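Loading example: each entry is read as four labelled lines plus one structure line.
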Amino acid sequence: MHFKIIFVKLVSTRYNISSMDKARVASLIERIGNLLRSEERASGSDSGLQTVHVQILGYLSQCNRYSNTPAAVTEFIGSTKGTTSQSINILEKKGFINKRSDEEDGRVIHLDLSDKGERFIKNEFPPYEFKAALDGLNKNDTERLSQLLTKLLIQLQRKNNGKLFGVCHTCRHFKKFGLDDTHQCGLTLEPLSEKESYQICREHVQLPEKAV
Amino acid sequence: MHFKIIFVKLVSTRYNISSMDKARVASLIERIGNLLRSEERASGSDSGLQTVHVQILGYLSQCNRYSNTPAAVTEFIGSTKGTTSQSINILEKKGFINKRSDEEDGRVIHLDLSDKGERFIKNEFPPYEFKAALDGLNKNDTERLSQLLTKLLIQLQRKNNGKLFGVCHTCRHFKKFGLDDTHQCGLTLEPLSEKESYQICREHVQLPEKAV
DNA sequence: ATTAATAGTATCGATTCGATACATATTATG
DNA sequence: CATAATATGTATCGAATCGATACTATTAAT
């Protein structure tokens, strides 16, 4: 069975993006997000986890060592502190994460995935159907999609809360990989070159002096 | 208006996409979706609407005349019939939509946006911050993003429930615009050329005989 | 005619969510 | 140093959502 998919590109002479296009992008993200949520519900139900819990575990598996706190999780989920606190307690009680208080700041708590949590993420995140769907795209498309979503996210965050400027290297969202020389912003998940990591970032949140 | 047709063939890539890349795309969509939701919550609160209600109104403003039913809304939201029925009742009680029963099928109900609903969508969907963020991308990026998300959505739907093949023209998701000659699939939101609308679509759901 | 399937509604219990209030630790200000 | 302001996290409560189940009505299949 052979298949060909045909796309029609709309080239208009006008410069601004039509209101229709914007609504379409919004609806697409909502629909895909909804599908993702329902897949997460299914994959989490075996372990007695709700979709929010799966989302939190997925986030914790990706963020850097400065972003694995309840506050950062709250920001990611877009909920309130109280609600997030409950979800985290459930995850701890079920043995998916461990709490560890910060040595420098007594208020801060770090959330580490336990072995059980790591195993869950490895098997269940992203949900199988989502991984399979991404296999249906080629590598180029996936990377481009990732880039464009990152770009959109940066714009969104810029509109939502005007964060300060700063250099990634001194930002609490900055993440350095161990294996190769690549860096990554833990908030936007945007890959950064060595050079970029010393450039100005609008999403910058200053790291406490001591830790730099 | 000018149109260009581009043929894209699905080729299996030699290098598969890393598990890390997939997780990043999933997290990006979740995070953007969460931001969108919280913006919708804000924009709906003035009218006493919850995020789900705003999502439903947004969907109804975009779907074709065969897809404005409670069942289609249920599929879009990814919830259950009962839950969606409640949300729809609230929207009706608040005067954002009108129910209208199908002339051909006594079981089916169509949901039309009222003037109040149309006004709400015009002002509040997508939320202001999201529109502003999309203005931060250029037109090319926005179109490419829309294409890639559509492609991903098609793959996801293919994995989730193996819909039957069929011709768009006889599909209940098929949508014909009034102004120009463009067509659109109401489910994937993918723009279709006149020619394509007679081609096979994997997402096809057969339209009742009478309506064709 | 009988059975199965589809579209939609109603109800119930569990869970989540957002808001508020609170406790503790750090930082800023004077 | 003292005090206020800020930041991180927790606890609690009521409202709303959600998923499941059961149900009605209409259409389709046999």
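Residues 144-212 of chain B form one domain.
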